[in-house]
């Protein structure tokens, strides 16, 4: 069964670009992330080890770019926000796909800007499943592109 | 770090990276550390009300483990781009086996690159995600 009221309005949300969100990359959170993922490589939690390996501070690990987007949810175009975003119920989402492309390393202490664009919305199984594609750009203080993310969220309407 | 690129050939396997079994505590800590507060992963009552058997692993937790496999093999700055498709949920108490294999070695814009086929499997041999990564060799 497809619940028409729960379907995401493609025309309304397609192409929506979030406001740029400012995020600070925090050393303590990177260390917490390393602990929570059982990281054993000290460059990800020990500043001395990071510097000895040629880094200017603790590096953000590859998937942390996704967390930076979550740190500062968008006012506009957020997947869950019922007023300004897509208003999807948290109980019906699954992460479908995730990709990253890197341009510059991200380190503890960096002040970044995150922008998310809803670039596609499509459905399968007669609308029982909807797929929301969102592209995220992370830029540094000079406007240089550090990383790009591509996220596909699966919404179970059936 | 060993020179991973000198004698690399298609078909070479990356060292398997194994994490788990995934406990409720792992999910709670990862939710906090990754800023992912989706309740399906941390509140059993919520997950069951949503029709799931119980809380289950964040896809991004398995992807973080895959990242560890890659950065344990090549320095992170060699990782140019990668993507995965999540194909099954990672149940509570599953052990996550991350594997990678060199699928192609090619040149682009003067750089020597390797395309690595990557995936994660549970200890019951269910594939939970799969994709590819492109790393710079030289």
What do these coordinates show?
The complex is a heterodimer of chains A (158) and B (138). Chain A is an alpha+beta fold and 158 residues long. Chain A has one domain: Thiol Ester Dehydrase, Chain A (Roll), CATH 3.10.129.10. Chain A is built from 4 helices and 5 strands. Chain A has helices spanning 10-13, 27-36, 47-52, 64-71, and strands at residues 21-24, 93-102, 111-124, 129-139, 145-156. A 5-stranded antiparallel beta sheet of chain A has the order 1-3-4-5-2, with helices on one face. In chain A, a hairpin with a 5-residue loop joins strand 4 (129-139) and strand 5. Chain A is elongated, with a radius of gyration of 18 Å. The termini of chain A are close together. Chain B is of the alpha+beta class and 138 residues long. Chain B has 3 helices and 7 strands; from the N terminus they run E-H-H-E-H-E-E-E-E-E. Chain B has helices at residues 24-34, 44-49, 59-73, and strands spanning 17-19, 56-57, 79-86, 90-91, 96-108, 111-122, 127-136. A 5-stranded antiparallel beta sheet of chain B has the order 1-5-6-7-3, with helices on one face. In chain B, strands 2-4 form a two-stranded antiparallel sheet. Chain B starts with 16 loop residues before the first strand and ends with a strand. The mean pLDDT of chain B is 95.
């Amino acid at each position: 069964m497809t619940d028409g009221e729960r379907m995401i309005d493609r025309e309304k949300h397609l192409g929506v670009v979030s406001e740029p969100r400012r995020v600070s990359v925090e050393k303590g959170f990177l260390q917490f992330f390393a602990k929570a993922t059982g990281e054993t490589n000290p460059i990800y939690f020990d500043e001395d080890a990071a510097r000895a390996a040629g880094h200017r501070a603790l590096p953000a690990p590859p998937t942390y770019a996704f967390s930076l987007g979550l740190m500062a949810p968008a006012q506009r175009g957020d997947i869950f926000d019922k007023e300004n975003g897509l208003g999807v119920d948290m109980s019906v989402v699954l992460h479908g796909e995730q990709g990253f492309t890197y341009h510059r390393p991200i380190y503890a202490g960096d002040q970044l800007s995150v922008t998310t664009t809803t670039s596609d919305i499509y459905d399968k199984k007669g609308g029982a499943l909807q797929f929301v594609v969102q592209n995220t750009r992370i830029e540094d203080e000079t406007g240089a592109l550090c990383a790009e993310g591509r996220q596909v969220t699966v919404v179970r309407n059936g | 770090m060993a020179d991973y690129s000198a004698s690399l050939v298609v078909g070479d396997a990356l060292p398997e990276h194994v994490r788990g079994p995934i406990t409720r505590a792992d999910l709670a800590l990862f939710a906090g550390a990754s800023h992912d507060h989706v309740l399906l992963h941390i509140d059993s009552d919520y997950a069951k009300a949503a029709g799931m058997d119980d809380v289950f692993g964040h896809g991004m937790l398995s992807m973080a483990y895959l990242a560890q496999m890659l950065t344990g093999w090549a320095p992170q700055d060699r990782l140019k781009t990668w993507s995965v498709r999540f194909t099954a949920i990672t149940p509570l108490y599953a052990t996550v086996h991350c594997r990678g294999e060199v699928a192609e070695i090619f040149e682009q814009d003067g750089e020597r690159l390797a395309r690595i086929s990557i995936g994660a499997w549970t200890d019951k041999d269910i594939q939970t995600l799969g994709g590819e990564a492109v790393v710079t060799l030289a």
